[in-house]
């Protein structure tokens, strides 16, 4: 090798060393703990020794350029465990609904949260972190989280519990889609499927979870303690959306949106997002999407909760008579109440509209979602028609249709039936 080239090679080699050391320092600042720093140090030592073996200037130059660009691309993209895959979900323009209405209909793809694949990932993580901060949960001690859920929160809790060294015990109504309880069992949760009952009944799924948590704590033969997650009443729920979902929507739209549409189960999503967005955009219109049998529609529209025939306690079999899961309720929970006064209007969506919309979204947009997402999309499209072209409306896609194969999606087939249904007939216009 000519002398001059040697200098180049040497110079490039030291540049490589400087680069990797600089990256090492930057990365060390970003990650916490000696274990992580040691891992990075080893990685960089390997990189340097690989570079040291190159004695041809062109190959060395090429390698350095490649390394520089991969460091740039890679920095910060590695997630810290499954919890690192929660939040920052995409905002998707639903093209068919936007074209039809002349409005931009945007959907926050919450089914892409990485642990339990629904907005409940944010809530479950927030509940666990809050309890950890208060010293109420100790990893690998047998501490168990108990929750009453129609499925989504349980699935998120069960996944995050596994990652953090806790156990999960889920109480759910036995008329929810079977794939949800199957999934919970595969995640290692204990599952109690109970008869649907009104909240006044001590065996109602939420009441039962509270009782089970207390029984665990009182039982000295059981390791650890029982913690009742209490998604309907806990501050951790709406706050997760106030600090996560709401700000993300604001940023993703550049603060330019006219309306937000969402269903409510616990009410955490609609309250948290609304409280954040209205603090920035006081003129934003917020609309509740409500399924049949839920009392929330009347509460928002007329200030009264119940139709006499829907009064809590009068229906022994079903709390809410609908095929739709996850939204609709006949009591005002704390999580709904914190944002209630900021909700401007409500739109009722029936089961057949939701089923037809779910099928429409697959046939025209390739988007495969569950029942609450379909309700949201019907309401968002109705609202767009009411507001007229030129508006921007954000709604939520909560979970995938894969969670609803045995019930909501049971009778539906897609493909070859594009002409069967029109958006006019779905919306009833
Ligand atoms: C699938 C699904 N969609 C929507 C919701 C409603 O969200 P929130 O409880 O924040 O009102 C839930 C609640 O459990 C759900 O399971």
From TrEMBL:
Cofactors that this protein relies on: pyridoxal 5'-phosphate
Enzyme Commission code(s) on record: 2.5.1.47
CDD domains: CBS_like (cd01561)
Cellular component GO terms held in the UniProt record: mitochondrial outer membrane
Membrane topology per record: Single-pass membrane protein
Membrane-crossing residue ranges in chain numbering: 7-23
Keyword tags: Membrane, Mitochondrion, Mitochondrion outer membrane, Transferase, Transmembrane, Transmembrane helix
Keyword Signal: no
GO terms classed as biological process: cysteine biosynthetic process from serine
InterPro entries named in the record: Cys_Synth/Cystath_Beta-Synth, P-phosphate_BS, TrpB-like_PALP, TrpB-like_PALP_sf
Compartment(s) where it occurs, according to its Swiss-Prot or TrEMBL record: Mitochondrion outer membrane
Catalysed reaction, written as an equation: O-acetyl-L-serine + hydrogen sulfide = L-cysteine + acetate
Domain Tryptophan synthase beta chain-like PALP, residue spans: 83-399
Primary subcellular site in the record, as a coarse category: mitochondrion
GO terms of molecular function: cysteine synthase activity
Keyword Membrane included in the entry's annotation: yes
The family this protein is said to belong to: Belongs to the cysteine synthase/cystathionine beta-synthase family.
PANTHER family to which the protein is assigned, alphabetical: CYSTATHIONINE BETA-SYNTHASE
Protein name listed in UniProt: Cysteine synthase 2
Protein's organism: Neocucurbitaria cava
Gene encoding the protein: cys12_1
């Amino acid at each position: 090798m000519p002398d001059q080239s040697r200098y180049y090679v040497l110079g490039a080699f030291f540049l490589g060393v400087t680069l990797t050391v600089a990256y090492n320092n930057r990365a060390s600042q970003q990650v916490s703990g000696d274990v992580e720093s040691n891992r990075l140090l080893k990685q960089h030592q390997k990189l340097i020794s690989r570079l040291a073996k190159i004695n041809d200037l062109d190959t060395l130059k090429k390698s350095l350029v490649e390394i520089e660009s991969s460091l740039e691309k890679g920095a910060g993209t590695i997630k810290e465990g499954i919890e690192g895959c929660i939040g920052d979900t995409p905002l998707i323009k639903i093209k068919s609904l936007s074209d039809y209405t002349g409005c931009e209909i945007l959907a926050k793809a919450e089914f892409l949260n990485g642990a339990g694949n629904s907005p409940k990932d944010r809530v479950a993580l927030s509940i666990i972190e809050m309890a950890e901060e208060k010293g109420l949960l100790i990893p690998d001690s047998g501490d168990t989280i108990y929750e009453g859920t129609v499925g989504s929160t349980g699935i998120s809790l069960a996944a995050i519990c596994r990652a953090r060294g806790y156990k999960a015990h889920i109480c759910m109504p036995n008329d929810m889609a079977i794939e949800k309880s199957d999934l919970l069992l595969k995640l290692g949760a204990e599952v109690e499927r109970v008869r649907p009952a009104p909240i006044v009944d001590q065996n109602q799924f939420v009441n039962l979870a509270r009782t089970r948590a207390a029984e665990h704590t009182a039982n000295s033969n059981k390791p650890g303690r029982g913690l009742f997650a209490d998604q309907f009443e806990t501050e951790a729920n709406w706050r997760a959306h106030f600090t996560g979902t709401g700000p993300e929507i604001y940023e993703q739209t550049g603060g330019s949106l006219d309306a937000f549409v969402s269903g409510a189960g616990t009410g955490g999503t609609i309250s948290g997002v609304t409280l954040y967005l209205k603090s920035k955009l006081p003129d934003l219109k917020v609309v509740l999407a409500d399924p049949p049998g839920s009392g929330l529609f009347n509460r928002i529209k007329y200030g009264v909760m119940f139709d006499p025939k829907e009064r809590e306690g009068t229906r022994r079999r079903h709390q809410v008579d609908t095929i739709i899961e996850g939204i609709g309720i006949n009591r005002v929970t704390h999580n709904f109440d914190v944002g209630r006064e900021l909700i401007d209007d409500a739109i009722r969506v029936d089961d057949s509209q939701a089923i037809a919309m779910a099928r429409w979204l697959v046939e025209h947009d390739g988007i495969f979602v569950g029942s609450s997402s379909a309700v949201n999309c019907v309401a968002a499209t109705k609202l767009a028609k009411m507001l007229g072209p030129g508006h921007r409306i954000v709604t939520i896609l909560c979970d995938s249709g894969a969670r609803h194969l045995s019930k909501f999606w049971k009778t539906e087939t897609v493909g070859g039936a594009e002409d069967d249904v029109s958006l006019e007939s779905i919306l009833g216009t």
